[in-house]
Amino acid sequence: MSQCCRKIKDTVQKLASDHKDIHSSVSRVGKAIDRNFDSEICGVVSDAVWDSREKQQQVLQMAIVEHLYQQGMLSVAEELCQESTLNVDLDFKQPFLELNRILEALHEQDLGPALEWAVSHRQRLLELNSSLEFKLHRLHFIRLLAGGPEKQLEALSYARHFQPFARLHQREIQVMMGSLVYLRLGLEKSPYCHLLDNSHWAEICETFTRDACSLLGLSVESPLSVSFASGCVALPVLMNIKAVIEQRQCTGVWSHKDELPIEIELGMKCWYHSVFACPILRQQTSDSNPPIKLICGHVISRDALNKLINGGKLKCPYCPMEQNPADGKRIIF
């Protein structure tokens, strides 16, 4: 009996010890879930941001459809439009269809559609200081060089396409023409072997996407993907601010639907336009409160200007130069 009791006691102690280790790990799971998943994440956005639930749903569906079109998933986008009864104009879809058609050809190393598009939009590309057409001609010339000596005459004939770009791309044209000397020996074993690098195809796809989107009035990156990436950075900060506001019982601080309670740094990648904050009121300017340049050259917001008017005169808070408030001019950054 004593041996059985001792054996049972040892077993119970071992089970208790094992359970203690397991319990420690299991108890941390709940905390990890609470830390990484917040069911009230929608609480950081005021309901006043959206005009209605229908408007919110329509904006989200449109963002998803635009993302699918931009990623080349045309059939998925069409299916979503049908199932959600979302009406998308053909004028909206056409730029994406054209963009994806040309990109698919470039991925298959077919330069024809891209060259045709670049030639037809030559003038507008020049206004953007784009070198897309030259890079497409250069890549076609390199493909001819890769064909060996039997393609030499064809390559020399095609080199006439470089003539309009001679002033801006003289050095690159000289390099390509110099490579003809090594054509019989093989470019892959010459100082010009870098011309055969496959990275040129990835570069031309990026260049075409960037310039074509600028020309067609499209964003290079999907607005949905940019919003999602920005939200991943901003939401944890906003959740912390929301918790502090609730703890201190000052919920009225965050009442405006078009501004955040603090500035959140998203990095240079998300800088799309200049932002001016009034040095007097410490507020970001907007369409209703634009930046105003005074005669002395200093810039303040319109709200600050109105508050500084005294007896029909305005004294600059920096100079201080006295002037007529009506002489201030609106600035657009």
Describe the structure.
With 333 residues, the chain is mainly α. Among the domains are: 90-216, no CATH class; 274-330, 2-Layer Sandwich (Herpes Virus-1), CATH 3.30.40. It has helices spanning 2-36, 53-70, 74-83, 90-107, 112-120, 122-127, 132-145, 152-158, 170-178, 199-216, 223-247, 302-308, and strands at 291-293, 299-301, 309-310, 313-315, 322-323, 329-330. The chain has a 3-stranded antiparallel sheet. The protein starts with a helix and ends with a strand. The model has no long low-confidence stretch (mean pLDDT 82).
Question: In a few lines, what is going on in this structure?
Answer:
The chain is built from 12 helices and 6 strands.
Helices and strands: which structural class?
mainly alpha
Low-confidence stretches: none
Measure the end-to-end span.
Answer: 91 Å
Rg measurement, Å:
32 Å
User: Based on DSSP secondary structure assignment, what is the total number of beta strands?
Assistant: 6
Q: How are the strands of the biggest sheet laid out side by side?
A: 2-1-6
Q: How many separate helices?
A: 12
Main sheet overview: 3 strands, antiparallel
Q: How confident is the prediction overall: mean pLDDT?
A: 82
Amount of beta strand: under 5%
